[in-house]
């Protein structure tokens, strides 16, 4: 699984990339200078081979636990989809895009 953190967003400029790396050692966590989600500062994306990709925005430091849960559930899902979005907790309200594989 690849997790991409915008490093131009406010948390990204404050070192959120390193926080996510430490919280998700099983993932390949990379930073990118801009994900064009500026209206939804802070953005983060999840992608894996053969799965739908997700882009979340308006992320705060308080979302780290739910991001970790999402990463675990996403990793366990065969195609990256979920029969009920409620398992995503508050992140379901922060999803900006679900991109087909």
Tell me about this structure.
This protein has 101 residues and is α+β, with helices and mostly antiparallel strands. Helices cover 25% and strands 23% of the residues. It is built from three helices and five strands; from the N terminus they run βααβββαβ. The chain has helices at 10-13, 16-23, 64-76; strands spanning 2-6, 28-32, 44-47, 53-56, 95-99. Strands 2-1-3-4-5 form a five-stranded mixed beta sheet, with helices on one face. Strand 3 and strand 4 form a beta hairpin. The longest helix has 13 residues, at 64-76. The radius of gyration is 12 Å and the shape is globular. 30% of the residues are buried. The model has no long low-confidence stretch (mean pLDDT 96).
Task: Label this structure with key terms.
alpha+beta, 101 residues, five-stranded mixed beta sheet
Summarize the helices and strands and which ones pair or pack.
Layout: E1 2-6, H1 10-13, H2 16-23, E2 28-32, E3 44-47, E4 53-56, H3 64-76, E5 95-99
Parallel strand pairs: 1-2
Antiparallel strand pairs: 1-3, 3-4, 4-5
């Amino acid at each position: 699984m690849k997790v991409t953190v915008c490093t131009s967003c406010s948390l990204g400029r404050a070192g959120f990339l390193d926080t996510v790396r430490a919280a998700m050692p099983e993932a390949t966590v990379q930073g990118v200078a801009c994900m064009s989600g500026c209206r939804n500062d802070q953005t983060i994306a999840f992608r894996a081979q053969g799965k739908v990709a997700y882009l979340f925005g308006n992320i705060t430091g308080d979302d780290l636990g739910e991001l970790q849960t999402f990463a675990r559930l996403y990793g366990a899902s065969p195609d990256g989809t979920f029969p009920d979005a409620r398992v995503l907790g508050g992140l379901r309200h922060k999803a900006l895009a679900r991109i087909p594989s």
